[in-house]
């Protein structure tokens, strides 16, 4: 797909695409600004230092980077951006005055995707930028698809593992509580036996939608853990807060009023939830938090299902 087709099929989430133009000569920036201003948001930097700051703060979608600059050179800017997980996926196109093969090879080794020679030809620079933006959008899209559960469209297990590790480190650093809510549908095997797998899938989709009501904060995450099991990561939420959210989720699922004649918890589809909360430290691991939540989920089942059980670890 070319850039137009991609943007039409998958609108970019945060407004227009952003291109960062870096050059120590403002006149060179001006030329590129004129090429791109109608189409993209053009960010500018006149030094390597400034370029690094803009990248950290604004995350451009692509960078046109001058090689020869006083202070931090283009090559060094490239090296630092590629060394940082937050910025390493931003495509970099070097813009150079003399085209020397050795220099070009070095740039590719450092992770640049392309080269353009000055003085720039507007048609060529525009075509190259559009090609690399299209590739970037496609790889972003692939990465996000790889993290989504195909049936319910919530995060998948892989995304959950990644997010749990990130939340664990953040809460460890900040001394804040981390809550996990593990839940599953009550008597789901009997549901599938009674209503069929197609209806079972529809039920999972509806439940996943209802569970979203329990999420409040930007770093909260709902994932399908497997089969009829889901899990929520609630960073910065203590055990009381997690119990409130779990109760919201439990009620939201009941409120769907999906018939389940073969459930021992009543005649409607319901969920059981287990919560474990702790302030991460080096005596515990993310796995031990998950195991504790699983134990609480088991307890909720034992005590009659359609309920929340919680534990605070310390
Ligand atoms: Mg220069």
Largest sheet strand order: 2-1-3-4-5
- The end-to-end span amounts to 53 Å
By secondary-structure content and strand pairing, the structural class works out as alpha/beta
Biggest sheet, open or closed, and with what strands and sense? 5 strands, parallel
Strand residue content? 15-25%
Overall body shape: elongated
Helical element count?
Answer: 11
CATH class annotation of the largest domain? Alpha Beta
Bound molecules: magnesium ion
Radius of gyration based on Cα positions: 25 Å
How many domains? The number is 2
Unreliable stretches covering 5 or more consecutive residues: none
- What is the typical, i.e. mean, pLDDT? 93
Q: What name is given to the CATH topology of the largest domain? A: Alpha-Beta Plaits
Question: In sequence order, what are the helices and strands, one letter per element?
Answer: HEHEHEHEHEHHEHHEEHEHE
CATH-derived architecture of the largest domain = 2-Layer Sandwich
Proportion of residues in helical segments: 40-55%
DSSP strand count: 10
Relevant CATH superfamily of the largest domain: Reverse transcriptase/Diguanylate cyclase domain
EC number: 2.7.7.65
InterPro entries: CheY-like_superfamily, Diguanylate_Cyclase, GGDEF_dom, Nucleotide_cyclase, Rev_trsase/Diguanyl_cyclase, Sig_transdc_resp-reg_receiver
Keywords: Phosphoprotein
Protein name: diguanylate cyclase
